[in-house]
Amino acid sequence: MAITDRDTGARLRLSLAPDGWLAALARRSEAVVIPLGALLAGLAVFGLFLLTQGKSPADFYGLVYKAGFGTWFSWQNTLSRAAPLLLAALCVALPARLGLIVIGGEGAIVIGGVTAGAVAGILAGMPGLLGLLLLALAGGLAGAVWIGAVGALRHWRGVNETIASLLMAYIAIALMNHLVEGPLRDPASLNKPSTPPLADHLRIGDMPGMDVHWGFAAGVVACVLAWVLIERTTWGFAARIAGGNVRAAQVQGLPVGRLIVAFTALGGAFAGLAGMIEVSAVHGAANGSIVAGFGYTGILVAFLARHNPLAIIPVAILLAGFEASSGLVQRRMDLPDATVLVLQGFVFVAILVSETLYGRFRVFAPERWSAT
Description:
The longest helix has about 35 residues. Helix content is about 70%, strand content about 0%. It is mainly alpha-helical and about 375 residues long.
């Protein structure tokens, strides 16, 4: 029996109609306008919150722009911070195409970082590029196993993936603390327990002419490849079918179980790679600094991007700019460092509320613009 997308026929009719491009534009615009409106609503509500604290929203957002996007130095700082967000968001976006809500990317980042710190000593004798590739493979594989286990539990035991991935994140942090403060600890790290520092040839450098490490480029490439996987391959098509209706996918003979494990593992691999990049490009060793909340911010990035890998790129840069401004906001406006986290919370709530708006506006209905 042939596998068909329930929307394929409608899409074909719209594309053949004289005004089919209008229908397609209306359908795609909904996925842009509603998240953008939710973002603006979240920013507006946070502005009201600032007024209750006696602070000026205009001053706050002016400082955010200045620190995150106002100068070339600010842009470089923002792009460096966006690197782990790109990969962490993919850990949420890929399983989401199957209808899974995986929020434990922080655990995969931590495990990937610890694994990189652990195997760096073994790879110290390897040639530069080969050693770096093997280090990335180790971090990605660790993340794949960690989040892939969540998919396996979901498929074979029916364990809720949201709860399982969140608990796995806490386990990963506890495991990291044990290893870094115990078996993997560098005796020279007195005040801050860390693994031994990485050899110079295992450190990720900056892109030419920029103070931005190559991790950002890796994140962008990963997003593009993820989009190709989802939109241009049979595996991606099968995942979209399973995400829309699991029973229909099973009737069509699609390997739903393997898709669940594969997509969760792939998302975990991206998050594990993010942990490796943080260790190699930023910290130089695995320590408590890799628990920086990138996995949780990645949830917001993925939801704001509607789980579209290409849309993740600008959204991650935007939120990275917000995070880059936290220090300046704290100094200039006498606000806590966690103020930016509060802003992200308002935006996330607005995004969740906006989910109820899809399909409610006739202006976005393809039938309004398609030929009759």
